[in-house]
Every structure is written in structure tokens, then in C-alpha cells.
UniProtKB/TrEMBL annotation:
It holds the Pfam family Sua5_C. It comes from Microbispora hainanensis. This is Threonylcarbamoyl-AMP synthase. Signal peptide: none annotated. Belongs to the SUA5 family. The keyword Nucleotidyltransferase applies. It is an enzyme of class 2 (transferase). It is found in: Cytoplasm. Residues 5-191 form the YrdC-like domain.
Amino acid sequence: MTAGTGDIEKAAAVLRAGGLVALPTETVYGLGADAENPAAVARVFQVKGRPPTHPLIVHIGGAEHLGDWVEDVPETARLLAERFWPGPLTLVLRRGPRVPLETTGGLETVAIRVPDHPVALALLEAFGGGVAAPSANRFGSVSPTTADHVRTELGDAVDFVLDGGACGVGVESTIVDATSDVPTILRPGGVTREDLEAALGRPLAVPSTSRVRVPGQHPSHYAPRARVVLVEPEKVVAEAELAQELGHQVGVFLPPAFADAEVKAHAVVEVPASPDAYARELYGFLRELDQRGCDLIIASLPVEEGLGLAIANRLRRAAGPRPSD
Ligand code: TXA
Ligand code: MG
């Protein structure tokens, strides 16, 4: 059930009172608090189980408000905001005095975006301020793309859940450091590198996933309970069957080229051929295979262009070393 006007008003009141609201965005659901209220922001970290040094993204209602939250708006940032907002792009800029250090994890920069979702925009309009919101999942686990995912994972720890249906993009926003005039991609996401490069008229650097570059970018982010193993697409079926024979409960991400294959495994999901559809389904697939009792997931990486870059980034992190390793 999609949120109505009464729900929006109630959610805005919860934010004003320092409470937590789960809100839909076009990427994933966020766990929102008043960005200017350090006590409310502290609760976000507590509920997520996230270390307080991992900065949050501040969601605002329109590009015209950007100047209220940052020290200055460099030309490149202005251009990107005009081109991609509302949309799945987050800009890291120098923090303005309005943003408490609790929200930025102690950094002198702040991450800002305008979400492209009618419910999120209605909430931001009714609330009037900025909403600090990480993805509404426990630290390190898979991001939620439906209101039910949020309720299952966070339950009563959230004061109010706004239901806006399933998220249309399905992977988080692209984060661009725009503090200098040589912008860099800190996290690939819903806006593609190709679209950014076309808008800027120059190539952009993308970090390798093997190094921790910014707080909150640990290799084992976005991980389901089941262990994820990545293999070449043509080896997915054989590896899955071998692991199943060895006694694992194997979940398979069946690549589109092998959609007709019969696989002897515990559970199989068919990867959509379109990257848009794959991004939308990715986190739901990981949750589904966990729920069906898989202890091992065999998958392959998509071609790393367009949204495939963000999908591959999340799969690599899901397969990364766990904190307990
Ligand atoms: O699509 C999204 O971005 C979703 C929705 C809810 O908007 N939000 C999201 O938030 O993915 P979260 O907290 O799960 O990821 C935010 C990322 C973290 O990796 C954090 O390190 C980075 O943004 N970040 C935030 N502020 C930063 C800053 N000042 N400098 C560098 N990275 C920053
Ligand atoms: Mg997250």
C-alpha cells in the first residue's frame, strides 16, 4: 500500500519530534532522521549498528536548496545537480554550518542528494528540512528494496515506515566527490559512469573494489547470510552442482545465456538479461536465497558497463571477506 497524505504528515511529525522514519527512494529504502538533530542521527547509527564514523547521506527536496547545506557549490557540482537531480546521484561537497558533525561522521564534507521518488519528495516538502538516511538495513547486510524488507529487518526499531512500493532502480546512488573540479566516483550506482562522463565531457576515475576508500565502503558490505562465490558465467552450473553434491544448500544466480539449463541445486533465480531489471531484482534475489535456506550462492559478474558496473560492485562486496574472516 502506497503512503497517502495523512501518512506523509505523520512521518514529517515523527521527524520533527526526533524520531526515525523509513522512507522509499528510487534506489533503496532509507532510514531517515532530521539531519540537523544530532540525537536523532545518533539513533540511526544505533539502530543500524553502524560505527558513528560512517557518514550519512542528507536528502533534500530540490537542487535549489543545495547552497543551504554546503560551504560552496563548485561549477561541476552545479552542472551535475542540474542534470541528474532528482535522481540516484549523491554529491560530496564541503559541509556547511547547518550540518552537524554527527551526520558526517566527523568529516568536513557532506554527501547530499535529491531522491527521485514521489513519496520521498512529498515527505521532504512536508518536513521542510534535510533527512539524513542510510539504507534501512543493519550494518553490512543487504539493502531493502520494499517496505516489507524494512519491517522484517528493523521491526519496531523504526517509529514509522512509509510504504512507496518496490524501488525502481534497486541499487544505491552513485556517489561523486565534487569538492574539486576533478570529480571522482566514490561508489558506482544508479547513475551510470557513461552518463556522468557525457554530462561532464571527460572521463572519470572509478575506484577498485578491493581497497577501502571512504568510511562505510568495507569489502563485505551488501552481504547476505549465505556465502557468495563468483565464478565465470559458463562455470556457474557445474560449480553449483558440485557444491550441492558436497552437501551445501546452493542458491544459483543463473546467467541469462544459460536460462534454459536444468540445475541440480537447492534454489535457482534467473538473472534478467536487462541490467535495469537485474539491478531492480538484485537485493531481492539475495534475500530470497537466504530465506530459502541457502548457505552458498554461486553467481557470475555481469559486463561492467552501464548499470552493470554497480551490480558487479555489489556482488564483489557481497562475496568479500566477512568481518569474522
Ligand atoms: O541510494 C542511496 O544512496 C541510499 C538511499 C537511501 O538514498 N543511501 C545509502 O546510504 O546508500 P548508505 O549510508 O548506505 O551509504 C552512504 C555512503 C556510505 O558509503 C558513506 O561512506 C558515503 O555514502 N558517504 C557519506 N558521506 C560521505 C562523505 N562526506 N564523504 C565520502 N563518502 C561519504
Ligand atoms: Mg548502505
